[in-house]
Amino acid sequence: MLPPAGSSPAELWLAEGRRAAAVDMLRRLSSINVVGPIYVFAAEKEDREVLSSIGGIALERPKGSFNFGRELTCWVEEGGFQRIAYFGGASAPLMTTDRLQEVFDLALEAERPTAVVNNYHSSDWVVLNHAGSIISLAEKLQTDNSLGWVLDHEIGYEVKSLDPSAATRADIDTPTDLLLLYRHPHLGSHLESFLAQTPMGALERVERMREVLVTPARALVLIGRASSHVWRTLEQETQIWVRVFAEERGMVASGRSERGEVQSLVGAFIDSWGPEAFVRRLSEMADGVLWDTRVWMAHRGIWPSNANRFAADLGWEDQITDSALRELTQAVSQASIPIITGGYGVVSGGIYASIEALQGGGYQPSRYGRQS
User: Fold this and answer.
1) What is the CATH number of the domain that holds 94?
2) 167 part of a folded domain
3) Which stretches of the chain are assigned E, i.e. beta strand?
4) CB of 68 within 8 A of CB of 145?
5) C-alpha closest to that of 19 among 90, 125, 79
6) C-alpha–C-alpha distance, residues 281 and 245, integer Å
7) What pTM value is reported for the model?
8) What is the spatial distance between Cα 353 and Cα 126, in angstroms, rounded to a whole number?
9) Same domain, 92 and 225
10) pLDDT of 126-179, one tens digit each?
11) Domain ranges, residue 67
């Protein structure tokens, strides 16, 4: 599945990157012998045409509003499928053919109802058997993120969630998610080519941030929905000091964001001090910052448009119409240290991808890890 592209320059840039990732994914899936027809559900005509040209089967867009659960279960019911795989079009940009083969084998060789997901609490893709069982879940699946939890708790599937890594956590939802994949050894050829054409100015902060990761005794700050596993990984795989300001994990899945219940201490400091003073103070205690700004946005109670959020992630201040977001973006751009902003992926898949890119793919503690 691929979402609407949008119309702003930042949205269109992201859409082009997602399309490149989807082409790589379709080619990888096509090379796996247990994979049958590959169906493409894409909002944009260009996406459907490109993916159809390399073997995908384009499905008609639904009339009216889109509902993930209804579309997925209707497709299963009409096709009479019993073994299926669902992928967001840009949800597995670092899953190699061999890793995908292992996932299919794990799910399809099981006798009892079994699903393999990349992340139990926030699923971006799933491979499962006994697919007819999910037809009753149409209204339970508002988004793909709840797939793992719903399959387990609603209909008793054995849900196998893969261990955190760049391959299982990298998902292209924002421009920053794309940029943090730069130089990873498991990029598909189309996405690698797309990133190679990205102006170096957009990648400069990524390269500066990675210098922080490989320089002993540097200080890194994580802000937002960072997990304990990410923190532990940084401590095991680098020789840097890490401060973590973790807030509002699960704010989307729990419904707190939708209900306007998100509270952020970091957001309160920004409210009190102003973005410029906050970023200046942050720069005094760190050599680099990875910042999931969506928590701050939810704390404000005013959710910026895709165009505004994505322009902010790229540092394109002149394209931001939300005054508070523009002010924060200006402060970040003028900071003396690299500060990378984005969504959840900035403190999740993007960190794993950066570490693995520096290590040539896969963790190599002997290279960058602390020595006892």
Assistant:
1) 3.90.550.10
2) no
3) 39-40, 57-58, 84-87, 114-117, 125-128, 158-161, 219-224, 241-246, 288-292, 339-342
4) no
5) 90
6) 14
7) 0.91
8) 21
9) no
10) 999 999 999 999 999 988 989 999 999 999 999 999 999 999 999 999 999 999
11) 9-162
